[in-house]
Amino acid sequence: MDATNAANEKPQREGTDDLSLLGNQGVRYPQTYDPSVLETFENKHPGNDYFVKFNCPEFTSLCPITGQPDFATIYIAYVPGERMVESKSLKLYLFSFRNHGDFHEDCVNVIMKDLIKLMDPKYIEVWGKFLPRGGISIDPYCNYGKPGTRWEDVAWERLSHHDLYPEKVDNR
């Protein structure tokens, strides 16, 4: 390999061989719902239990009845197992909802199920904080704990107590 080619090649990090979006400047944004854009990489600390949290304050989808846009902040928190979701692919995936018609509750459940299928986490929760339309906001929450593990119990506890201390609603 000559010096010119070597300078243009990106060093590959261990466990990231399958990533095609990270660092790719030619990525196209999906125009319809597309879970196939999601990519994973190897968790280098599968023996540690720790949370990874994503906040997406610019999530949009369409009302399946009226076609009007819905805006939300989507919170995704998970305890990884062997695989982790790559953040650029997650951004593209969440963007793919932009022209997708689904109710708020469906959006958060679809996101959670797609991520479970993708990476088989120990635990995951998805919370949508949708802006009001027609004078009411909807904040669906869903979670999952891997069956047969302590995370199954954590899921129930968090679900049954997730909104004990609701935030003060002042301008939404």
Summarize the helices and strands and which ones pair or pack:
Elements: H1 3-8, E1 40-42, E2 52-62, E3 69-79, E4 83-85, H2 87-95, H3 104-119, E5 123-130, E6 141-145, H4 150-161
Catalytic activity: 7-aminomethyl-7-carbaguanine + 2 NADP(+) = 7-cyano-7-carbaguanine + 2 NADPH + 3 H(+)
Pfam family, one: QueF
GO cellular component, one term: cytoplasm
Describe the fold and architecture.
Mean pLDDT is 86; it is low at 1-13. The protein is α+β, with helices and mostly antiparallel strands and 172 residues long. The protein starts with a helix and ends in an 11-residue tail after the last helix. It contains four helices and six strands. The longest helix is centred in the middle third of the chain and has 16 residues, at 104-119. The protein has a domain at 50-163: GTP Cyclohydrolase I, domain 2 (2-Layer Sandwich). It has a four-stranded antiparallel sheet. Strands 1-4 form a two-stranded antiparallel ribbon. A hairpin with a 6-residue loop joins strand 2 (52-62) and strand 3.
